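<purpose> Linking amino acid order to shape
<body> The protein record starts here
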Amino acid sequence: MASSPPPNTTPAPYGRACANCSHAKSKCFQLAAGTGCERCQRLKKTCRPSTTVRKRNGRASTSKTAQLEAKLDSLMSLLLRDEPSTDTPGLSRLALPTTVPQVPQSQESGSSRTAYSEGIPTPPATIALGGSPRALDTLCSSIPISPENAEQMLSFFRTESIKNLPFAYIPSYMTSQQLRQEKPFFWLSIMAVTSPHCLQRESINLKLADFIHQKILIDFAPSMDILLGMMTFFSWATYSGRHQQILYPHVIMGLVCDLGINKPIPTEPSTMQAFKCAVGFKQNTPTSRTMEERRAVLGCYLITASIALTTSKIDALRWTPHMEESLSVLTNARECPEDERLVTLVKLSLVMDKAYHLQRDGDGHHAPYFYIKAFQSQLNLVKDSIPGSLRNDDSILFHIATTELVIHEIAMRAPSTPNTPDLQRLDSLYTSLQAAKTWLDLWLSQRPTEYMAFPYTIFGQLSRALVSLYRLSVLDDPAWDRNFVRTTANLLEYLNRMTYGMKMSTTHLAVPHQSEWNVFEKASTMFQCIREGWEPKLMEAWFPSPQSGAFDDTLNASNPPMLDETLPMNGLDDLWMMDVFGSL
């Protein structure tokens, strides 16, 4: 039975209860004197009218597309109003620089919709990010780099670093500020890997790594900016953990596949694109493949093929007919000087990848020397096609020597014939010896600044050259002269010279009172530890005692760790040292 209203009161109309009664879900009785409601007066509360929203029964839009676009515009407005996340350590809330152009809301929402489409190239002047651009701009603003230093670091990357892995073209007239506006994540990655100060570089790398893990992999849509930045950070960063050698290659391969730049532009929509069209999403189909996209996909192949060859834990990005087309287009277009170098490096990498897969997967139908001859013929064709301006280029020579090592490793793994010397095998072993010697001599001829410009691909090749020379030095084959190896390419002498060279280079990145953070100090320690780990086996192979039995030509797996893993790992060693040499 309903209770009767208090005297001298009137029940409030529907939807007109005061804020207190509405919050308490209690009936509201307005006093006749007009001074509020009976409940608020009894409880001695301030009676405030509730906020009402008038329900509008407007005409429903006849266009589903218009409704979806309106919702997307609303979502983008909310994203743009949101404050940047404070999850990333060390980031400060900074205002947007006045030099960064603001994109109108309608354009921003449109770019966010098209960024999710498969295979759509990012226009150079558009930041097509799915996450909040303010979060990325805040991170860029938090990096303590002056405009003058930023220009110097960009110049170093453009003239020294990128020539070793030319997956992008940065025109000489482009300034650091222009690159930051057009591709902020790419710019940030360049700043992270070229900072000349050890502690500053470590700080930037940590911030960028946190941002990648917390934001890029979750909130941001695939774009060329993100792809180029990830390729740069992984290939040159002096901050990385062991697991990231496997994580980052898969990330950049995923970005390539999501952008669709490894395959032709589709003539008809995919199943997902057709579904998006059916529910009202606009699909902007690209009409042509850009040169930027062609370089990026070939660069991704170079990076992943190098990781596959060094770690044997992943496969390279699958080579497709469209990538072959991109290789041909870059060969003929010659839009920039680095395209010829990129084409040559990719051709060499293709030969290496084939030889690697043969060794890994095996084939018992043909003799190993049949494949060695075939791969060597392919390598000779690539060498003949190298332009004259690149025949003495260090990055090309590094890759040629490594390709020969990979090809002729097949002979090192083949069983020896004790009674009759296998001349083909001996020829391959000699070729491997000369290739390892060529590679290491080339390494010792580099300046300290060139060491800092080397990407992961070169460091992986260094590990192969050292390991190959070690195997040749201790190879137990009656027909193989280990003393000849010692006099031709003495591994201990190479390690001594590398140790000395790194010590002489320590002043290049000296950090007061913290020498352990100097990349050259740690590289020197690394080479010295490798020497100490390998010297006993080498001395036993070169100067065997009468009591020594047959020598095991495998790498010694019982050696103690060559570096204290508590040492702060940044620099030449942290990307490849522990995985490649840590178990020897």
Observations:
- The CA atoms of residues 471 and 554 lie 7 Å apart.
- The chain has a mean pLDDT of 77.
- Strands lie at 9-11, 29-31.
- The two ends are 88 Å apart (CA to CA).
